[in-house]
Amino acid sequence: MVLKKIIKSRKSYIWIPIILFVKLIVLYFFFSQIQNQSPDKLNGIVFISNDFSELIEPSNQLIKNGIYSLDDQSPPYAGRIPGYAFPYLLFRLLFSENISLQLLILTQIIFSSIAVFLLGLISEKISKKSLSFFISIIVFSFFPFFIKEDLYTMSTSFSISAFIVHLFFLEKFFNNESKKTLLISGLFLTWVVLLRPFTLLYIFPIIVYITYKNRRKLINIFKYNFIFLLPFIIFECFWIPRNYINTKKIIPLQDAYVPGQKFGYSSGCDIDCIAKFSVIEIRKLISSWGGNSIWYKPGSEMHWFLSYKPLDFKNHLFVKNNIFFEGFNKDSLINLKKDLQLSYNGELNYDERVKIDLEIVQKCKKFRAIYMKNKPLNYFFISHLNRIKNFLFVNPTQDWPGASFTENSIFYKLYKSISILIYLLTLFSIPIYGIILLKKKNIYGLICLSYACILIFIFGFLVELSSVLYFSTGLICGWICLVLIFKNILFKTK
Questions:
Q1: At residue 364, what are phi and psi to the nearest 5 degrees?
Q2: pTM score, two decimals?
Q3: In sequence order, what are the beta bridge partners of 76?
Q4: Where are the domains of the chain?
Q5: pLDDT tens, 158-169?
Q6: Comparing C-alpha atoms, which of 438, 417, 437 is closest to residue 480?
């Protein structure tokens, strides 16, 4: 009888603790894997990520010295939008660094549990079937490929949870057109943008919808768009002046996105940085033929450039003969790799290393021009398809902690396989739903579809560096598409 009441209930105080309990069990499994593999990166329940110094340390400096910077000696920092700083700063005002970190991760886990519950409600609402609620809860409590991110000091977990809350209130707005729900939806989308700046383009589908919906009432177009954008406008009213006062530059997001910015080192990414401007130029070269520019993935072109061995292409299959032409051959890449390694040589003085970085930039531009001239179809079209493939059609569990797939236990293999299967199912739901949408018009589904397409466009055409984790919000959109597919094909609801 009690179980039946729980199943029928949609009370948050019942379901969120259940989801939280399940998540804690799953995350304990990942925690034990990390503990065995990388114990030095653990601090209590916190996994210290590579981005820790840029995401967390500026907040510590703000508390200690009153300046949002990377360390005591650095100038004011604008390399990352302080989206991740928001919850951490609240804790740091009251607690020590270590306690604040533990509370930050606990907050990620709890917020993620709330988001899973809301995703279940969204799925049930748009499908009109209670089964969708339970399946969504099970899938996103156990199997999303990004579930481990709840333990990491990275912006992934908060951005996914905030995005789901945005979708929850967006769906409410489509039904009741309440200004309050639109404002809350815009507030959480603003937070998503502050955590993942490339999601800024997400605001345009909503603006287009509001404008079209109120096309005969000009005052409503301005009113509803202003309400939706108000949280972002308020943030920019503080962030842009702060950056201009400290850097004399107009920086609306972060300094990596300043229009017309010239090549040079930036705060937090100087001459020893793994993402300095010469490395970025090599990524552009790799992307020109559709290569893989993820530096931490063994076998990728960028990994080869940044690893000290080998200097030849033995056991590396990524270089095809048809990318080379007169003036750009295998020796060109090998010498470019040698230059890059030399640029990190601390025995050289600073000016010598700067000169090498500038030479790398010029060589990359030259090689890209040669490739573009000889392979225009590949450069302007096929390379982008390859970049989309490298972005989406990968094993999303490849960075899960623990041994390699072949060395895992049967349980872990099965767990990974289910997660991969769900990822592929949601991924392919996006184009399938795009076809269904031609007949079954659904504005909520159209918005979710446009979000996913925006991500594919960004990382297929605009940004050279991509990781499947950047598609996390796209996976949520894929799940919405999958639910709507079942609604239109299997459930046959109107």
A1: -60, -40
A2: 0.92
A3: 69
A4: 2-257+395-491, 277-375
A5: 999 999 999 999
A6: 437
